[in-house]
Amino acid sequence: MIPKTFSSIEGLRGWMAWWVVIGHAMHLAGSPNWLPPELKKIALKGDSAVNIFIIVSGFVITHLLLSRHESYIRYITKRFFRLFPVYVVCGMLALYTLPEYVYAYVALPYAHDSAMRIERIQATEANFPEHLFWHLTILHGLVPEGLLRYASSSILAPAWSLSLEWQFYLLAPFIVPVFATGFARKTRLLVTTLACAFLFVLSKLYLKDQYQYPSMLFLSIHFFMFGILTRIFLDLKRYRALVLLVPTTLLIWKPLEGVIWMVWCCFIFCEAGLIHHGVLSKAINIAARWLATNPINTLLGRWSFSTYLVHIPLFSVAVATLPVLRHTVTQDAVWFALLVAMLLLPLVSWFLYRHVEMAGIRWGGKLAARLS
Question: How far apart are alpha carbons 71 and 10 in whole angstroms?
């Protein structure tokens, strides 16, 4: 029987959020000398963590749509209030701490790609009403660079992937049912698959250069599709086919993401009761407890959305306080400030989750009930 929630997915979110946090810390303060070069390369691949977040979104939204038969208006209202309140709060924090951001990411010599950040700040200030409008719609990731420079990342850079998720949320109720019933209705499944593949290829060929990040839905649709198919295969009990599907397709594009998702697929299969071999099931459960389902991972995963959105303003404030404490701001001092910020980050994330995210979820549930 498929469980209502997958605790291993929650744990995966926690890992991915902190992968992004560590990578952004290294972008700000430079790579520490004591870290092995192989780990440096992996830590700086925050885009891989975001790609896995996208796969997880495909899985979770598909699970939601299959387990709760809600009207579209009820579904999208709840999704909106799940995202918007904490997104607005973190966006306001980013605007309020802009001077600290400029000091940390532009004035200091350790930050990566300072020239791009200067240009992005200037572009945002020059067209602030337009940037604000698109950010309030959560569709800023859809706007090409030719129309509005740095539209996807101008106010709060990590929120480009939030816009991508929102685009998926809007269309998921039309895509997921096709794949859920597609094995019985093969023509509809084939047409939808070919349409998604065509739009993906077309976007990669002609629109990729129009986006700073793959923030337009069809530039990242393949990752959502893997999440969708993983969840659907659980109902069909075709996990053997999925084990072949993941390495032969996902690994073609992103080997690191493929390996991580295959490991978590094993955890998911175990939670769903699809792995019956005693020794294998026991080994996977032990690995899951260490990597995914322990209480710390579960909490970090629960707070991961806030962690992902708030860490840049928190880093900016932490580093900007250094001149008050000492005359010379060294790279070691920047790393010390970031480590302090990372120690505070779980507390800040908990606060945002408890008082902003949960409030938004309650408001969304009440409004959705009234609308439906």
Answer: 26
pTM of the model as a whole: 0.92
pLDDT of residue 252: 56
Domain residue ranges in the chain: 7-371
Q: Which residues contact 116 (CB under 8 A, 6 or more apart)?
A: none
Which among 222, 122, 108 is positioned nearest to 164, based on CA atoms? 222
pLDDT band at 60 (very low <50, low <70, confident <90, very high): very high
Q: 3-state SS of the chain?
A: CCCCCCHHHHHHHHHHHHHHHHHHHHHHHCCCCCCCHHHHHHHCCHHHHHHHHHHHHHHHHHHHHHHCCCCHHHHHHHHHHHHHHHHHHHHHHHHHCHHHHHHHHHHCCCCCCHHHHHHHHHHHHHCHHHHHHHHHHCCHHHCCCCCCCCCCCCCCHHHHHHHHHHHHHHHHHHHHHHHHCCCCCHHHHHHHHHHHHHHHHHHHHHCHHHCCCCCCHHHCHHHHHHHHHHHHHHHHCCHHHHHHHHHHHHHHHCHHHHHHHHHHHHHHHHHCCCCCCHHHHHHHHHHHHHHCCCHHHHHHHHCHHHHHHHHHHHHHHHHHCHHHHCCCCCHHHHHHHHHHHHHHHHHHHHHHHHHHHHHHHHHHHHHHHHHC
Residue 94 carries which side chain, given as an amino acid letter?
A
User: How high does pLDDT run on average in the chain?
Assistant: 88
- Distance between CA atoms of residues 371 and 195, nearest Å: 32
pLDDT computed for residue 79 by the predictor: 95
Q: Using CA atoms, how far apart are residues 258 and 223, in angstroms rounded to an integer?
A: 10
CA 363 to chain centroid, in Å, comes to 23
Q: Which residue has the higher pLDDT, 199 or 81?
A: 81
> So what's the pLDDT on residue 136?
96
